[in-house]
Protein 1
Amino acid sequence: MSIAVDQIEAAFELMFRSFLDRSFAKSLSLQAKTERQLLPLIRVGLLCYFHKRVLPEVEVSTPWTKSKKSRIDFRIDKTAVEFAVRNPGKSKSNVSATTNQSEVKKLLKWREGRSVLVLFDFSHYPIQHDGFQEFRKHPSLGKGNHSKNAYTILYFHVVTRRPLEVRCHRKEIRRESARAV
C-alpha cells in the first residue's frame, strides 16, 4: 500500500508542532535552526513515523546541472520530498519559489511517484495566499521538450503561539507540458 500525501502531511505537522512546543524542545530553540540543522532531526522523525520506507538523500537525474545528478532530501515510499525552512526574523525569500527553484525542478522531473515540497515557516508573518502563485510558474529545465509532473506544497506556519495553533496550507501545482526555447 502506497503512502498518501495526507500521511506525509500528518508526519510533518507532528514535527512542526513539536519543534514549537517548549516542553519538547526544552533549551534547543529548534525554530531558530537552519534547514541543514533540522534535516537530521526530521530524518529520525520520518524513520520513526514511516519505518524503513524512508530513504534520505536519494540521487536523482538533473540534466540541467553540470554533474547531471543531484539529491532529493527524502524519498518516502515512492514520494519525493524536498524541505525548506524560514526562521523567525528572516525574509520570505527562504520559502519563495525563486529561492527553492532547484528543489522545484527536481520535483517536476520526479517520475517514480508523487512529489512534495514541505515548507516550515517559524516567522511571525506567514506568507499570504497569493504568495504561492509564483510556484505555478515552472522554472526552465533547459532545451528540449520536458514533461513536468505535478507536485504538492505543504506550507506549515504559526497562527497563534499561545495557545499554540498551527496551520498547513496545501497547494497542488498541476503538471504541464512545455517546450523550452
Protein 2
Amino acid sequence: MLRSKKNLSIIITTLFLASVPVSSITAFASNQANTDDSITITQNMGLVDKSLRTGKIPGEMAPCTIIEYQNNSQYKIIQGSEYNHKIVKTNLPVTFDIKLSAEDIKRNEDYKNFLKEHEEELKPKNIIKVENPEPCTGMKIIYDGEGFIKHIQMPEKIHDLNKSGIKLDDVEKIIGISYASKILDRGTTSPVGTYSWGDNKNTLTVTKSLVRGVGRLTNFTDVKGEAENPLVKGDVATKRDKDNPKHGQTLTVNANGKTKSMYKNDNGDLPDAVLDVWKTGVEFFGYKWNVNLSFKGEYSYIR
C-alpha cells in the first residue's frame, strides 16, 4: 500500500530519533529553539561550532575559559563554558575615594586643554578594523577573568599543552606562544590612521604629531619588562603590534577622573585592551587591585 510523503517522513524521523542518543536529541532540540542558527552544538562529539558563518573567534566566553579549535570552525572547550548573556557580571571594579590634590586638578585641566587643542587632529578618519586571526586546527584561545580574549595561541607554537589542559595563571609562565600579527620595532608606532579592535571597542589614533589610545585598561603582574627591567608601580605595557613606543616613554594616562604620568616599560598582545597597567598602578586611579580588574581609560603621548 502506498504511503503519503508526510507519513513516510514521520516514519523515517521516528526511526532516526530511536537510533540517536538522548543527549544528542536534547542538543538538537535546543538548537532548533536557538534563534542564532550560526551556533550549533554537536553534543555527542563534545565540539561547538560557532564560526561556520562568521569565521571569527568568539570575542567573549565565560571567565577563564580555554578553547581549542579542532578544525577551522569547530572548537572544543577545555575548561570553562560558553558566555551566558543572562548572567549579570558581578566582578565589577572596586573603587575607593580619591582626594584630588591641587596638582591632580591641574593635570586634569591640562589634559582637557591638550585634547581640545588637538580635537580636530584626533577625529577618527578611515577607521581600520583590526581582526583576530581566522580559526585553524590546533589554535587555542585563553579568556581572562572577565571572559574577554587574553591570549591567542597559534598551533605551530603550542608544545605540550594538551596533556591535562592548562590553568589561566599558568599561561603567564609560557613564553613565545602568543599570536601577534606583527610586533613593531621598539620606538615605532602604526602608520597615521585610526585602528579599532576587540569587543570593548578599543581605538588607537595615530597622527603626525601624537598618539592616543582609548578603551579598556587591564592589568598584568610580570616581574620583568621588555628590557629585562624590574617592573614597578607606574609601569605600563602597550599593544606591541600597534603601538610600541621607546622604552621608558612617558604616557599621559587618564581614567576615573584622574590623570597620571606613567611609563611604557613593557609590551604585550592586548587582543581586547588598549593598555596594560602594572599591578598596583591601578591605585593611582582609585581602583583596588585584583588580577581580573579592568576599567575604561585612555593614554596619549607626543611623538
Protein 3
Amino acid sequence: MATRSTTLRKPTLTRVLHDVNAPAPVQAAQIAFAVMAASKTATWAEAISTPRLADSVRLTAHQQEVIESFRFVLPNLRRRGPVVTVEACPECGRWGWSCSPVQKRCSWTPGCSGAPVKAATTAWKPPSPADVLADGEVVL
C-alpha cells in the first residue's frame, strides 16, 4: 500500500503596503483589508482568528501603531457582501463609513473644500516598486 508524503509547507509571507500619505483612518482600513485578503476572510474578526496569521503577514511598527490607534474602526469593515470601508477628508480630518463611490467634495464640514479619500478593499500599489523600502515602508 502506498503512503502519501505529508510535508508541511512554509507559509507565504505577505508584506502589507499602504499609502502613508492617506488620512490615518484610511491607512488603518487599507492595512486591515490587506490582512483580510492575505487570510482570505471578509471581516477583521475572521482575519484575526485565522490560525497562524502572524506567521503569514508582517506589519511594520508604523502599521501596528495605525491599527492600534484605529482599532475601533476595524470590526465594521467588510471586504465581501455589502462592502463597508472608510472614507476621510484630508483637509478637515473628518471621516465616515462608506458603501458607495467616494464623494467629490467633503460633506462632513461646512465650507470644507477637501476631496475625500476612500480605502479600497483591494491591495494598494505604490507608484513605483523602487519606492518600497526593505521593511515595507513606502517613500513618496
